[in-house]
Each structure stands twice: as structure tokens, then as C-alpha cells.
Design goal:
heterodimer; A: Alpha-Beta Plaits; 2 domains; two-stranded antiparallel sheet; 5 helices; 20% helix; globular; B: alpha+beta; Ubiquitin-like (UB roll)
């Protein structure tokens, strides 16, 4: 069964749990600034999670001079083979969606690798704004989020 | 047909186009390397990966010394990575390297791992960190730039741009400096300027945020080479994510 990363902008409350989970899962010192999934915050409790699309015809792959970016057949992710990377940062500049990230601390390129087929950010999302679902389910429109109920639930 | 060979007595089957080094890795046999890099063509320059090899048709006690990184595998091959003469050959290579680079931590560590604390030759009076592994020139050739090369020979051999002048072909990608195992190529970089091999580069800066990861020359070179439109490189990842998020907002089905 082919799984896909589904993002429902409608349901994101910009809590940042996915960013934190990602930063911890990838050993980037748990700093949310070093996450591979980024929430664009556009208002109070309104966010848009932006994460790698694992494009079929990807600009990062096309531009890489050493074929360090390869498709993982099992997970469908474009994986970074660090042993082949020459750190030229062309993929960072080429990605039209800004999902290839330069990590100055570790001096390397970071990208979403779908955590070997089990994205760690997904179980932490409290509203289901991000989900890891079979392809057939991905086209289903998302359920609207009752934001009022959410505020009460949190306890003022 | 996938060839099967024996490495230090371990049986291993690998792909037809594999090298002895690939096979050794598959068999979990460690072979030290210096000039090898997975993303580049093997070169066999550092001579550290030497192994004893015998073909199936040869006499059982007949072995030849070859470099593992670029020697293709063959059905029925026997490989030894720790025979007496291989251990000795490696020690000589490291002894010589330590004489050339007596103060380089990487060389010191490798030499120590092979039982050499001090070089038995006269140490270089002008210690150098460059081990002449050729990774920098090979990576530069590989990306289609060839701005630097090895010049002179013997003891005077070094890596340099043509005529020791700022190289006109350099695109400032820093691949040479990044790949260097001893970090001996100096450079400086910021979001506005980059300097390497005595040449200054202007960075391709995001018009809004001012961030930059590549130079203008780099963008032009790679756009031509890969067919990715130049426009893709002109904004930073932060700006592109912001644009993407705005597009997503407009696409919302339920408000």
C-alpha cells in the first residue's frame, strides 16, 4: 500500500509540535529551528505546515552533481546519501519550495526523509493537520476544525 | 551473473560492476582509504587501499598487489587485506605521508593506527596539510569546472589554480574545500561575499531577505548543466517556503 504525506492547512493550529518532534527525531539537538517540517505562521493559531513533497521530477535531484539524492523505493522519499554529498548546496538553492535546508551547526544539508516510512511528526499533531495515509485517502477533503471547542479544551 | 569471491576467507557475492572495495564493505572487511569518495570515480592515487589479489585461474600461492578502490571483482577471486606485504606496503605509504605532513591530525591518526608514532624519514621542514589525494581537483573536474589542478611533480607537486592566479573558471562552489579530508583549502563565506583561491565572488542574494547559499557563477553553471531554470535559484529557501504557504492558504477547501 502506497502511503503519502497529507497536509490539511485547514486544521493546523501552529502549535509547533511537529517541528519539535522532527528536531528531536533527527538529533538536531531538539531545536525546533532545525526542523525539516516548517510551519508558516500567518496569525494566532493559524499555520501552514510546509514539508518536502518528494517530487517525482525533483529539481534537487536534477541539480545534484554526485547523485547524492536518490529515491528510496520502500518509503518513496528522496533520500540524502551523505557519503556522496559534496556540500555544494545547489539542492538548497534549487528546490522551488524551499524544503532543502542548510544546517550550519552540523554543516550539512537536511531534508525530510519520511523517517524510514513512519514520519515522527505525524503522531504528535493534535488536530490531524498532518497525516500519513494511503494514497486513496489523500484526495478526501479534510474535516473542518472546530476552533472554538479547541480553545475551551485547552482551559483558559 | 553476480560474481562470488573470498575476502580474508569470507565468502561474498556482489554486483558485476562492483570493485574489490565494494565487496570488502559488503563482507564487513575494513580497508583504509584516503582518496576514495563514494560520489566520485575511484582513482587509486593514495595507495592506502592496496590488497593482495589472486584470480581463479592463477596458482593458489600467486598473488598480485592491486588497489581495491578501482579493481573490478571477478568470479572466484581471492583477496587478502592483511597479508604481511600488504601491511608493510601500507606502513610505508603512511610513513611517507607522515614525513610530508608531520603535523596533520588525520595522517597522525592513520599512522598511529598502523603502529607508526614517528616517521622514519626526514620530516618535511615546511609542514604541509595537503596529502595530494586529488579529491579537490577530481570533484572540480566532476562538476565540469576544472578550475584547479595538480602542478609540478615529485617533491614540488602541489594543488593550485593556473599560474597561481585567481582562477577564471572557478565558480566558488566550495566543493574542493568541503571535500578536502584535511581541511587545508582556506576560504571565507558570508551571505554577501565568498572568497576562495584568491578570487572574490558575489553571492546570489534573496531580494527580500538577503540570504544566500550559492554564488552567481554557481547558479549559472548549474542551471546550464542541469536544465533547472535559473529563476529557481534566485530566492532563498525561507522566501520560497513563505510563497508556498501562501499558495496553500488559497487552496483551502473548508474555511
Amino acid at each position: 500500500m502506497k502511503m503519502i504525506f497529507k497536509v490539511s492547512v485547514e486544521r493546523c493550529i501552529a502549535c509547533g509540535k511537529c517541528e519539535l518532534a522532527c528536531a528531536f527525531a533527527h538529533g538536531s539537538e531538539g531545536r525546533p529551528a532545525k526542523t525539516r517540517i516548517n510551519i508558516h505562521r500567518r496569525g494566532p493559531e493559524l499555520g501552514t505546515p510546509v514539508v518536502c513533497f518528494q517530487c517525482d521530477d525533483a529539481a534537487c535531484v536534477a541539480v545534484c552533481p554526485t547523485e547524492a539524492l536518490t529515491r528510496n523505493r520502500e518509503t518513496g522519499a528522496i533520500d540524502m546519501v551523505r557519503e556522496r554529498c559534496i556540500l555544494c548546496r545547489m539542492c538548497v538553492a534549487a528546490c522551488p519550495f524551499g524544503n532543502m535546508l542548510w544546517d550550519e551547526t552540523y554543516h550539512c544539508v537536511q531534508k525530510c526523509d519520511l523517517c524510514e516510512g513512519d514520519p515522527r511528526c505525524v503522531p504528535f499533531c493534535p488536530t490531524g493537520a498532518i497525516a500519513w495515509v494511503p494514497v486513496e485517502e489523500a484526495a478526501r477533503p479534510p474535516q473542518p476544525l472546530d476552533r472554538e471547542a479547541l480553545v475551551l479544551e485547552g482551559g483558559v | 551473473m553476480m560474481p562470488t569471491l573470498h575476502i580474508n576467507g569470507r565468502r561474498v557475492t556482489v554486483a558485476e560492476d562492483a570493485t574489490i572495495l565494494d565487496a570488502a564493505r559488503a563482507a564487513s572487511v575494513h580497508i583504509p582509504t584516503l582518496c576514495q569518495f563514494d560520489g566520485l570515480e575511484p582513482w587509486g592515487g593514495c595507495r592506502l587501499c592496496v590488497v593482495d589479489m589472486s584470480r581463479e585461474s592463477w596458482d593458489d600461492d600467486w598473488f598480485k598487489v592491486v588497489t581495491a578502490c578501482n579493481h573490478p571483482v571477478e568470479e572466484g577471486m581471492t583477496v587478502l587485506t592483511d597479508s604481511e606485504r600488504i601491511v608493510e606496503t601500507r606502513r610505508v605509504v603512511l610513513d611517507l605521508l607522515l614525513a610530508r605532513c608531520p603535523e596533520t591530525p588525520l595522517v597522525q591518526r592513520l599512522a598511529r593506527e598502523h603502529g607508526i608514532e614517528k616517521t622514519s624519514f626526514e620530516p618535511n621542514p615546511e609542514p604541509d596539510d595537503c596529502i595530494l589525494c586529488g579529491l579537490c581537483t577530481r570533484v572540480c573536474d566532476h562538476i565540469g569546472v576544472s578550475a584547479i589542478a595538480s602542478v609540478n611533480r615529485g617533491w614540488g607537486r602541489e594543488i593550485a589554480p593556473p599560474f597561481h592566479q585567481a582562477p577564471p573558471d572557478c565558480i566558488g562552489c566550495l566543493a574542493c574545500a568541503e571535500i578536502c579530508p584535511t581541511d587545508c583549502i582556506p576560504y571565507s563565506t558570508s551571505s554577501s561575499r565568498r572568497e576562495i583561491w584568491g578570487r572574490e565572488f558575489e553571492m546570489l542574494r534573496d531580494p527580500k531577505t538577503g540570504e544566500a547559499v550559492i554564488t552567481k557563477e554557481q547558479a549559472e553553471h548549474f542551471a546550464r548543466r542541469s536544465g533547472v531554470p535559473l529563476a529557481y535559484f534566485e530566492t532563498s529557501d525561507t522566501s520560497k517556503r513563505r510563497e508556498m504557504a501562501k499558495t496553500f492558504e488559497k487552496l483551502q477547501v473548508v474555511k
